[in-house]
Amino acid sequence: MRFMIIVKATQASEEGRMPGEALIARMAEYHEALAQAGMLLDASGLQPSSQGWRVRYAGGECCVVDGPFAENRELIAGYTLIEADSRETAIEWSRRYPNPTTDGGDCEIEVRPLMASDDFEAGDAIERFRVLEGELQAKCQDARDPRAS
C-alpha cells in the first residue's frame, strides 16, 4: 500500500524561509531510514504558493489563478511518498516524522493512502491506467539499475 505523508505549510514555509542545517539533518536521517527499510518512493519540499498556481473549473470553463494563496493550514509545504505493508506500519513511520517547522513550533502532517488501479471497477479506461503504471514502474526500475546506462 502506498501512502503520502503531507506536510502542511507554515508561515515560515510560505515566506520561503529555508530550514536550517539541524532540521535538514533530521529530515535526511528519517528519509535514509525509510530508504533502508525499502519504503521510500519519493520525497520533496515545495516552493511557496506564491510560486504556484491553481487551475479552476466552473462548468466547461477553465482559468488559471496565480498564487500566493491564503490559509497556510490548507497549503502543502512538502511530501514523502512511502510504500508500507499496512496502515499500522504507515502510522508508525508517520509518527517518527521529524517536526518540519523551522522553529520547532506547531505543524500538521496529514497521511493519506493512495488509490490503486485495483480500487476501481474494471473497464477500458482503468486498463489504460494500468498500462501507464506498468510503463512508469519499468522506467523507474531502469533508472535505478546501474547496468541500464
UniProtKB/TrEMBL annotation:
A Pfam family reported for this protein in Swiss-Prot or TrEMBL: YCII
Occurrences of domain YCII-related (ranges): 1-113
Coiled-coil blocks: none
Superkingdom in the source lineage: Bacteria
Database matches in InterPro entries: Dimeric_a/b-barrel, YCII
PANTHER family named in the record: BLL7171 PROTEIN-RELATED
Family: Belongs to the YciI family.
Protein name per Swiss-Prot or TrEMBL: YCII-related domain-containing protein
Organism listed in the record: Acidihalobacter prosperus
